[in-house]
């Protein structure tokens, strides 16, 4: 099975994000890490490739920098990577991202596309659905368990009360949830091999995509600090105060 896994490189979530003053875009350091959400997608892709004698190709659109995040995914076992990095893509929104990733995936050919449900830095959670529309394949979202053969894929789709069993023929697209599988840790051998795995670098014009007009971030405001709470001393009748506050909040 020819498996395409979408992976996003993001600034290390352990460090505070900074925005540039002019466009309010996240300032992206040279060393970005693999989004944790996408480690799950890579693991699902590797398990399906192992079961079907398939291949895993990573697709990523971002300032490539040192490729640290991509090498992390290659070290887990992915076969190769395609990176789309182009200054004209700065400030891309979800639709432009979906257009570019879909064009790169279509050009390479695929049986199954795997993405995370929601990225950690942008988290619009709509890129996978947009890609399925552009690629004209079924979208199996919120996948918490995945089984696939060379003919089709079946998932458990997480719902608020349990799960739905959803099946689709291939080609198809999956968006996996964070708990779908436990991502493997790269081995030392995997880390060494990752250094020589093929990484194709593309620009938007290589893909011939006509991008839509895109978004502009007009302003960014800090979340207001939470006000200090009120402390009620219990003199034996604090319950009356609690009832009064619940009535004010229209809870009772
Ligand atoms: C030069 C350049 C600068 C950029 N600057 C920013 C920035 O400042 N802030 C920002 O958030 N984004 C930036 N991006 C990336 C892009 O604009 C976002 O990825 C996009 O808006 C997706 O939104 P999301 O993260 O909300 O996707 P979601 O829908 O939340 O992501 C769901 C899943 O889709 C896949 N996916 C999403 N985006 C990508 C991607 N780029 N590559 C591969 N897979 C992906 C992943 O599997 C992810 O788990 C930049 C890209 C380029 C090329």
Helix and strand arrangement:
Layout: E1 2-6, E2 9-10, E3 33-34, H1 36-52, E4 55-61, H2 68-76, E5 80-84, H3 94-108, E6 112-116, H4 127-135, E7 139-148, E8 152-158, E9 163-169, E10 172-176, H5 188-194, E11 199-202, H6 204-207, H7 238-248
Helix pairs in contact: 2-5, 3-4
The structure holds flavin-adenine dinucleotide (FAD).
Flavin-adenine dinucleotide binds at residues 6-8, 25-26, 28, 35, 37-38, 41, 59-63, 85, 89-90, 92-94, 97, 101, 115-116, 118-119, 121-128.
Write a structural description:
- The protein is α/β, with parallel strands linked by helices and 252 residues long.
- It is built from seven helices and eleven strands.
- It has a single domain, classed as Rossmann fold.
- 29% of the residues lie in helices and 23% in strands.
- The strands form two sheets. It has a nine-stranded mixed sheet, sandwiched between helices.
- Strand 7 and strand 8 form a beta hairpin.
- The longest helix has 17 residues.
- The mean pLDDT is 94.
- The structure holds flavin-adenine dinucleotide.
- Flavin-adenine dinucleotide binds next to helix 1, strand 4, helix 3, strand 6 and helix 4.
